[in-house]
Structure formats: structure tokens, C-alpha cells
## 1
Amino acid sequence: MDERPVFNQLNVIVRDMAATVAFYRRAGLEFAAEADARHVELKLPNGFLIEFDSADSIGTWDTGWNGTTGAGVVIGFALSSRDAVDALFGALTGDGYRGRQPPYDAFWGARYAIVEDPDGNGVGLMSPIESERRFWPPQPPPHA
């Protein structure tokens, strides 16, 4: 029997759980978390599980961890509109989070931006894709 794996979980290792929880709550996630939590999880309506683990707890389940956080990933958030991308980007950067990619009209037809979470992970903010807004070749996006 050829059983394919199912991608159902994202584990993010964090240095400061309180800062991480504050950021993702500000970005729109709703979950319960104690101030001194070492592990926080959120099951999304589609069944996908996001877990945040404090760096000091990783050794309990990953003895090979190299000690880094903020790896080369972009955690994506779908927003309801192009204006919602601009508004959330403005709210997060207004709160002091680093805007890595200002909002722009991307070649694939969406409004897109990237903000960094407290550990330096990219958090992509994307509007619905509108086929009439697609273009080729891509133009360089604006710089932060």
C-alpha cells in the first residue's frame, strides 16, 4: 500500500513566547495561552495544526535541534481584500514589527506584503488572487 504523508502541522520554535503570542494575536489568530507557556497550539478550521514551542523546551522532543530560530520560511495569511493587506501591514509595522516587503500588486494577481514575527520568520499577507490583475513578466517589488 502506497500511503502518502499528509502535511497537517507547522511547529515554530520561538525565543520569547509572550512576544510571539502577542504578534500572532495582532495578526488575527485566536488561541488561549498562558503568559509563561512553553507550548501553544492552535487547530485551524481545516484541521491544520500550528504549534509554537519555546526554545528551552525543544530538547524534550528534538535532540538534534541546532539552536536557531527564524529560519527561511514564510508563514502565509489569507486576507479578505487588497485593502485588508495594506491595513494589517500598517497596523503591524505601526506596532513596531519589521516590514520586510511593503504591500504591492504582485504579478500573480494578489496584493502581497511580508512582516517579520519576533523571531524573524516572514509572515506573508495576501489578498485573494484576481486573474485580471495578473501580469508577466514580473516587475521588482518595492523595497522596504
## 2
Amino acid sequence: MPRKILTGETVLAAARRRISWLFDQVELGHIKQIICSISGGKDSTVLAHLALVEANRRNRRVGLFFLDEEAMYQSTIEQVEYMMQLYPENTTPLWLQVPFTLTNATSVSEAELQAWAPGESARWMRKKRNAPGTIKHKPWPEAQERFRSGCKRLDFYGVIQNFERCYDHTAWLVGLRAKGESLNRWRAVVDHPVTIGGQQVYWGSKRGSNWTLYPVFDWDVSDVWRYIHDEKLQYHKVYDHMHKKGVYPTQMRISSLIHERAFKSIADLPEFEPKTYERLLKRIKGIALAQETGKAAKMLKCTKLPKAHKTWAAYRNFLLATHLDQARRPIFEARFAAQLQNEYVARQQCRQLVLNDYENNLPIDNKPDPWQVHRESLLAYYEGVM
């Protein structure tokens, strides 16, 4: 487990100190500029506000970068607009609306969405933004465009990486929190310390000539909401809808509506944002089915075995044999062949097939079946007693 050191400093004071120190490094010439990535969610809202307040105090500017995925809540767009207008004299807006590919977990026949597809403006969820700071064409040369390892087309992370390469010696602030989240997320934040201006920074990592930094990594979800309340900040409206639906605060996520980790949001979308749902229905296939079955145990959640199959392994084999996308079926077959053959793993494999997760965005926990291990240990115990 990571070692925790209690300093007596509040997380808010620590975040302000870190951000102030980053602005010091800009003034000393160790960092050229500071850009904060925002998503419209609560964490990036808090981080951006902290950075803007410090920029305002010093009469400097900070970049606010937003990658527009097209298939998003209208409330996300409204929240990002709000953040970019909060301190206009201290903000450099960077609203990126360029074509790239998003995986679609709601359909096998249309497994991808080409966001902002050229020549298809009539089908877009909405028109491109017409305001200063909007970037409607790739700012990097096509000949120098790079794809992520193992990826053959420009995806979400590929866009971010190519955009970041347009800058050098830049501090990219990300509202990633590790406290209260998974241990792997904590390790991702603190395991690769970097050096800036001769000082070691444990809450960041190096990427090329730039740095990715996480000033609020040690905040809890309650710290985030307390800050929003105390500073009287506007926040994403869908959080209120989620609260009314009984979603636990740590489970509230604001992101694309169609990828593997967010498709369940479509089930409530007609109630939250009916106009967004109508536009999404016309934009891409599988939305109506996802809306009806997004929370069903036997469908997209894949937590209850259909009656027609006696085991998860049998259900997995059925899904493989009937998979509609023959080009991607071998991807699943090769991946599954290298994994353990038990019911625990097979259920996760079924989920990947149902969601068409050929990119492995929901990695399988490839280990012995915990229930089987527990059962065998109990049997061994009772045999020893008797």
C-alpha cells in the first residue's frame, strides 16, 4: 500500500500551493505555459477554477483545453462554456472540434462513431462552435500524425497526444483524483515523479518535453463538492439528475455517452436531456436498444446468465460464433485464447463481446475464479477437520 504522510495541511491549501508553485516556474522560465484540460465534470471544474484564480491574481493567462467528442450531454457544453467565460481576461480557450474515432458500445453493426465526420455536417449532433478559441481543423501536420500503440486510426487519446505535441515545455493540468479511487489510479499518479526547476514533483509525469500534472490528486469526492459549494460555482446539471436517481457520489461520471464505461447513462438520457437523446438516435445505431437494456442484468450489464446457456463459457462461445463483425472476431478469439478458462473470466469475456470492446478498454481480470478458490479452501478445511 502507498505510504501516507499527514502534514496538517488541508488538500485545498496543498492544491493552491502546488498551482502557485507552477506559476512561479513559468515566471522563472522553467515552464513556458500552463494548460488545464477540462471535461465539464466536477473535478476538472474545480481544478480549472483554482488555476484561473491564481492566473487572475498574477495577471497571467491559463489555457483551458476541451476535446469535443460530439456525442455528449448538452449540459457538458453549457458547463464548458461557463468555465471559459468565468475569467475571460485570464483564459486562453482551446476548444478542439476535429474528426476522430470513438468506439460505440451500443452496436456491433456500427461499432464506431466518426465524430465531426467531414461531409456529414447534416448528421452531426450539433453545429460546430462559432467563437474565438475554437479549433476546427487539426493543428498538427497530417504527415506527422501519430497513432497510439496498437491503434490504426485516430482515437480519443491519439487526438490528445497529437495536440499536446503542438506545444513544448508546457504543464498540462488534469483533474485526476486518486484518493477514494482504485489503488492502480494512485500508483499511476505518484509512481513516476518528474523534476521541474530542480524540484522533484511526485504528482505528475513526463510526456516528451511536456508534463502532465495532477494538483488535486489527493482530494476526496467530498472535498470537490465542498469547494464547488463554498465558491458558488456552477456545475454539470446531470449530477442533480443522478442524485435524484440514487447514484452514489463516487459513481457519478460525466463523459461520452456511447463508450464502454458510460453507455448506461443512455438509459436515463430521455429523462435527463430528451433533445440530446433524439439527436443521438438519429446520429448512430444501437441507441434505442441501449436505452431499453442499458441497466438490464442479462443484456449490456452482463451480470446475469441468460437461461438458454448453462455456463458463461457456453454463452461466450455462442457470442463468438454469432458475432456480426467478422473483421473483429479474431481479435477476441486471440485475446481469449491467452486467458484462463473459468467462469469468472468467461463472464468478463461475455461483457466484452456484448459491448464490442475490441480495444480492451474494459480489461479482463485474468485470474482463478474467486468463488472456486473459496469453495476449494472450504472443502480442504472440512476434510481436515473430519
## 3
Amino acid sequence: MDRFVCIGEVVKAIGLKGEVKLYPLLDFYEPLLDSDYLVWQDGSRAILKAHRQAGTCYALKCADVNDRNAAERMTGRELGFMSSSYQAEDFDRPDAGLPFRYLGREVHTVDGQVIGTVEEVRVGGALYLLVVPGESGEILIPTVEPILRFDEELEGPLVIDPPEGLLDVQSG
């Protein structure tokens, strides 16, 4: 099923010439700002004429946004891509992939034990942590090999090979 994946939200207008400030979210990856796959949350194509880093955010110059009034009307819009485009050969993504692809997927151990379903992805330093509700609390699974068997799929089970104690420590 194709769904919109948000990489950032326009939070305000900048200056008088139509720039907007984009607040990056979990699936943000800067090279995507140069991608032909960018869309707004309504599915319309997003065409950026320029972008630059502005502190922890990004300043964007969007096509057809030429003054402050037009930029202010952009506030609240979400920028992203459609999940189906993630599989395209020319889709630019980081080596470790983007976190949206983990959400809603069931987690199994290599021996077939079902752990649960990923309900959240958190940033944990240089890696992501998959949050799976357990009987005694949250199970946090780091997205590193050899614990998580890497795949580029968008559905189906994720397979983990947890070191001894990972599931006990994280859920207790």
C-alpha cells in the first residue's frame, strides 16, 4: 500500500522573497531535497529551486512561492515522498535505510519466536531503536547487524538475532 512518508514540516516563512523554514523529522535525509520524488502531503509534486541549512532546520525556496504571503500560506505543509518510490533504483537513501520502513512490521527471532510489532522508531545516537511493546514494558531493539538482519523491504517480518539477555533486559 502506497503511503506518504513525511520528512519535514514547514514551520514558518523566512524573509520577504518566499523562503520557508522546514523542520526535519525522523525520516529526513538531506539528499532527498534534490530528489524528483519529493511531494507534499496531498501528493502534489514539490519542486525546490534551492535549499540551505539554517541551524537545525532548512531554508527552502519552492517553485511558485515568490513572496512572504505565499510563503506564509505554506506553513503547516508536510514534505516527503510516497513509500512506493523508496524501492526505485535512483531513490537516494542512506546506507542504513530510512526508519519509516520499520513501523508496523512484526519482529521475529531467527528461530521463529514472535516478539511483537514495531510501534515507534527512536534515534539512539548513530542508530535507530525499534520500540516493540512487551508484556513488561518496551522492548528496544537496536538496528545494527548482526542483531537485526538488514533488508530493504517495506513489509513482512523483521528478523532479529538478539544477544543473550537483550529481550530480558529491555523488557524488564
